[in-house]
Structure formats: structure tokens, C-alpha cells
């Protein structure tokens, strides 16, 4: 039996999708293999599990914590506690899971993970044909976020004060 990823690749399509392989959620990327005359000679499929390594890779790109869920069940995350031990994430509310998994909406939550407050945004993980299999969340540390907001406000106040002083001197 030929997988749908290989069938798409043999039909000249590049694709990336979420799939279930056994009991695991994975990301699959597929592409056609062509000769110099652009005739398809085969297909290549790369599969990677939705695990801590992928969460850490995405975290290194986006600069925020990342987690994967199979419905309401946490699978893997980049969250760690104060000792550096890996944390699975949180169990989102049934209402959040319903909104993300059934309706395809973005869900938002606030949670304490490893003793730190996070703002989380959940999105559905779905196949190339739209079947929702899980969720991914990006989390920002609310303490760090508040510190950035305070710093931005302080910069604005100093900038406005400086502009006022400059205007008074120039007048």
C-alpha cells in the first residue's frame, strides 16, 4: 500500500503534513525525485516524530517555548524546570481542546509550568487534507514579557522626556 505522501510526490507535489504512525504523531515531508528532463523517477519522504528534539529545534528558531499535544494529552515540549528536567506541558481545558481540535480555532491559555507563568497559544496540527490530529502551543514566560513591557514603557517615557527637553532648549 502506497502512502498518501508518496502518491502526492509521484504526482509532482511537494508536501508537508502531520501523520499518525502507529501511536505517534509525526511530521512528514515528501518530494518527487526527478531526472534532468523533469521526469519523476521516484519519491523521497522524510519523517520526524513530534518529540522534545523537534520542540527544541522550533524553540531555537522562534525564541519561545514549544509543546505538542495529541488531543488533550501532552506529548513533548521544550519546557524545563529549574533543574533542567524536561516538563511535558499542561493539560489544556476541555473547552480549549474542543475549540482547537473541533473548530480549528487558535486557543489561548495562561498556565503555570515548572513554577513559571506562561501565556500559551494553541493551534491545530492537521494533515494536508485538514484532519486535525493534535495541537501545538507556543508559550511566552509572562514574567519576561512583563519585564520587556516595563522596559519599553521606560524607553518611551525617557524618549518623550528627551524630546520635550530638546523642544524647550530649541525654543
In percent terms, what proportion of residues is strand?
A: 35-45%
Chain-averaged pLDDT: 86
Query: Going across the major beta sheet, what is the strand order?
Result: 5-4-8-7-6
- The helix-strand sequence is HEEEHEEHEEEH
Tally the helices: what do you get? 4
Largest sheet: 5 strands, antiparallel
- Silhouette: globular
Fraction of residues in helices?
A: 25-40%
How many individual β-strands? 8
Explain briefly what this protein structure is:
By secondary structure, the chain is of the alpha+beta class. Helix content is 33%, strand content 39%. It has a 5-stranded antiparallel beta sheet with strand order 5-4-8-7-6. Strands 1-2-3 form a 3-stranded antiparallel beta sheet, with helices on one face.
Topology:
Blueprint: H1 4-10, E1 15-21, E2 24-34, E3 40-49, H2 52-62, E4 65-70, E5 73-77, H3 94-102, E6 107-113, E7 116-126, E8 132-141, H4 142-170
Antiparallel strand pairs: 1-2, 2-3, 4-5, 4-8, 6-7, 7-8
Structure characterization notes:
This protein has 171 residues and is of the alpha+beta class. It has helices spanning 4-10, 52-62, 94-102, 142-170, and strands at residues 15-21, 24-34, 40-49, 65-70, 73-77, 107-113, 116-126, 132-141. The strands form 2 sheets. It has a 5-stranded antiparallel beta sheet. A 3-stranded antiparallel beta sheet has the order 1-2-3, with helices on one face. Strand 1 (15-21) and strand 2 (24-34) form a beta hairpin. It is globular, with a radius of gyration of 22 Å.
